[in-house]
Amino acid sequence: MNENNIIAVRSNKKIYKEDDKVIKVFSEEYRVSDVLNEALNQARVEEAGLNIPKLIEVKKIGNCWAIVNEFIEGKTLEQLMIEDPDNMDEYLERFVNLQLEVHKKKAPMLNKLKDKMNAKISAADIDATTRYELHTRLESMPKHTKICHGDFCPSNIICSPDGKDYIIDWAHATQGNASADVARSYLRFCLDGRQDIANVYLMKFCRASDTARQYVEKWLPIVAASQSVKGKPEEREFLMKWVDIVDYE
To answer: d(Cα 130, Cα 143) in Å, to the nearest integer?
Structure first.
């Protein structure tokens, strides 16, 4: 791969652009099952009718696995928000409407969100009493089968010049309760130091979907606990504050 063609670098992957393709190359340590699961998620979501870059192939490049997708020309919604902050309100409404489109769809073969959350809580570095409370709360939440992106944020939306929006990065996709997906988006804004935007986003989503804010907030300790498993030290302290809320309710 030509290093001059790199368009993004993550802790365990490099993303290249070659002609009309995007090639996501994973590190040698990345589990093959996780690569194949991401590709399978993408295929299932595409079949559900959502507007996403087309999956072209999965292959090995040297000792590394790679996923090849269609390249979409455009800017991310995150870039537009940064470049044009005066229209933040409009961009947030666009963001919410896209998320609602995702939640309208179903993909029965996706992994279940509750199974993933239960496993993450069990693996979280928190005391047994809090884990028990979180498992209990999770089991009490209504069971839905809506597509949940798992990391729905403005940087995962490409806005093309022709006005179409494409949603990328389906590694964490599951089927389940949409409010868990909303809680994850809310926490993502907060982790980025954008509490004010997080609050406006949540208000807009709840209004557009006729969802009680308190219902989404019941998911926050569960989602925060699952997110803490990623082990980012700079995020853990913030997330644990949300996890601790469960002790006082």
So the answer is: 22
Q: Would the pTM of this model clear 0.90, i.e. be above it?
A: yes
User: Which residue in 203, 189, 180, 206 sits closest to 81, CA to CA?
Assistant: 189
Tokens read off for 73? 């020309």
pLDDT means per 10 residues, the chain with 249 residues, are 85 93 96 97 97 97 97 97 97 98 97 97 94 95 96 97 96 98 97 96 98 96 91 81 69
Residue 95 has φ and ψ, to the nearest 5°, of -60, -45
| Torsion of the alpha carbons at 192, 193, 197 and 200, rounded to the nearest 10 | 110
Q: Give the position of tokens 């009680």.
A: 212
Residue 104 in contact with residue 146, Cβ under 8 Å?
yes
How far is 181 from 190, CA to CA, in rounded Å?
14
